[in-house]
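--- STAGE predict ---
source: upstream dedup step, 1 unique chain passed
mode: sequence only
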Amino acid sequence: MFDTRDPDRPSKTFSRSYVAPPLQAHLDGGGTVEEWLAGRTPLASMARISADQLDGEAIGVGRQHKNNTRNAAKHGCAVVLHYEDNNITAAKREVVRPAFVQMVRDLTHGEEEETKIPVHGCIAVERERVWRMPRDFVAFQDALIMNGTGVYIEEQSKLDLVNDDGAIIAALATSGSSEAEVKKIRKRTTRNARDRAEEGKLYGGPRRFGWLGANKETGRPGNKFLNPEERPHMVDQFVMRYEGKSWRSITAEMNRRYVLTARGNKWSEQAVKALVTNPALWGGRVLDGKLVVDEETGEPITGAWETPEEITYEKWLVIMQGVEANRLHRGMVPAKEKKAQDEPRGKRYKYSGFLRCGRYNELDEVCYSKLNGNKGSGNNKDHYRCGDPNCKGISRQSEAVDIYLEGLTLAYLDKHFTGTIAVSVPWRGKEKLKSLQSQRKAVKNSVADGEADWSDVHDLLLRLNRNIKTLEEEEKEHARKESERNLLRGWSRGKWETFDFEQKQRAIGQVISSVIVMPIPQGVSDKAPFDPTLLKVVWRKESKSEAKQPSEDQGDGTVPIAA
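--- STAGE serialize ---
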């Protein structure tokens, strides 16, 4: 099972899979999957939302799972697994949907990879929750065929995708689900946005900070009228930057005021930059990174929404001269040339990302922001530093921190991983792949022997080749994960010396959850010798239980500093 949510950085965009709550409750009570199913066909519930605009944690996909569970029962089936891609579109080829990919793999093998819970089909409230691109439909259909059952329920209708004669594919090619139609809709949307911008009409997207949102009851359009509560904070951000304040100090000031963004989050430097550099503040509009201007006069076109009189186009131009970020230059500053591919990278810091700030910030909260490596200048040596705008910051010399923490890491690995043996988990699709390869060989031999014509087996060979390629790619991914899982097994100090930078960071990440860096006590000079007691290491408990046999002493997780 997997879950891409990050507790430290909450987001509506995530993918996850988990055992259906009713089944999980039965298992927790000591029951078995077979008892709970009682002859019912086990299905996967696939839920997806392109844009999660509901308040609360994944309400939309939760509703889909609820409907899927109810509809499955009408066909003598039961939902055993939930797969969900939240706030993820299915209409863009470049967008990866982790839950869909994992569900297809599990359907292919007829079981969930980790729990081994059987799964013989899928149910969704509508097919667009599962696929929109023909490519995804083909992958889904192949998985159902290789599963051997091919159960697919859409809302309350049971569809036979295994024996589909091409009708659904034909529908994909002529309906709004086709790739060509998706591209056409995208072009139409882009063209409409450009037309609206050139006409100075309202921005039709999500509510901007500083403006009121749409209200259907009163007929108020969104992003037209200034929000009297947010207006002064929006103006202050612009004015502070115009007067030379840093992005960091502006961000800190907004958070000190407990002002939230339009999405209800704390301000970050990037959010402040996005607001201040947005020409909408004085009535302008940007398309494709450039200001929308009148073709005849060359002057910016102003939109039909309210703007603060304190913010002007001329002042905005002054601010934009100091904006170098390509994503925010708004067509005012030429994009910097990319660095040559062979240009050497700067120094990388081994424990960057693991260190967390333990100081109380100006919001009277433990900061807990990440400390990142910084190159020293002048008399200052390379150091790790907290970059949170609401924190006075914590800094430690990177060399001293790395030496100390590496010693702890190695001592921990010596204690918990020495003598362990690499255990390889067989790939679950080995026999299925071998069977498909045998089928392909038999088909080719039948043609070579004159028992069948190429025209008769053409479609079958295409499907076999596609399925074999899919399984071969999965086998490679399994081998990569096995290598990662066994990275620390068979541990010795000599193994550490053979690791490259990425391998060392992965090894650290497998045993260390975080390192809290405490502030230097009052009365102690900042130039005092490095104090290792101010680093509080949080070890990953599961690492110990996986490394040692159950009969061995697990210890309390504390280790001595390596010599």
